[in-house]
Give the backbone structure.
Amino acid sequence: MKLTIQVNEGPYQHQSADTAYFFAKAAIEKGHEIFRIFFYHDGVNNGTRLTTPPQDDRNIVKRWSELAQAHNIDMVVCVAAAQRRGIVDDGEAQRNGKDATNIAPGFRISGLGQLIEGGVQSDRLIVFGD
Amino acid sequence: MSETKKMMYINRRAPYGTIYAWESLEVVLIGAAFEQDVSMAFMDDGVYQLVKGQNTTGIGMKNFSPTYAALGDYEVNQIYVEKESLEERGLTLDDLQHLVWEDEDEDYAEKDSIRLVTRTEMADVLAEQDVLFNF
């Protein structure tokens, strides 16, 4: 089955960031295709490479990056939500005159249309959040 | 994308206090360009999103409620409001904005966008959808 996953909550604050990751991983292991993972609301904070969790805790961002790399998954951070919350890539830094970037490997910033497209193109849209 | 799907945006939260309602509306407005069969549902505290006469001066937030009145222009005109959710909060349809759309096929006649449904009917409407966006 072709799946799009939407993550609506931030890492560490809310378990849905973990649950979405485990779901994605399990789905791939079962042979399903992940069309896209879309990060929205505070979920965009899953995509900052500047996160530094304690050493004895899981590294949620790194885990996403590794999953994306291992399985060539399209991971999209919503641009409008990212701008509000300070998730920045090179293009956004240039456009908005910011002095730094923080997007993690494997993530890209794009528009809400990517979420709608995921809903249209996939067999299931699965939302993780409150 | 040739395929047309029935897509519903479910709104369950109060308009302020969290950003879910506003960012949900942003998805609806963008999604309107995709020529899908779009509808919205308002239930639980989500019915407060449609209450008329909102004034956010005291909380320093943008009052985005006028945007709901523009939904008809985006061809988002199937807006389901759950009756029990209104009643549980002491609200009636009269407390909500009067949302309308213009029917091109009937000489731009103005029609109501809001459909008041019971909790049971809402379950049926949800079951008919291909894609549910839950906010």
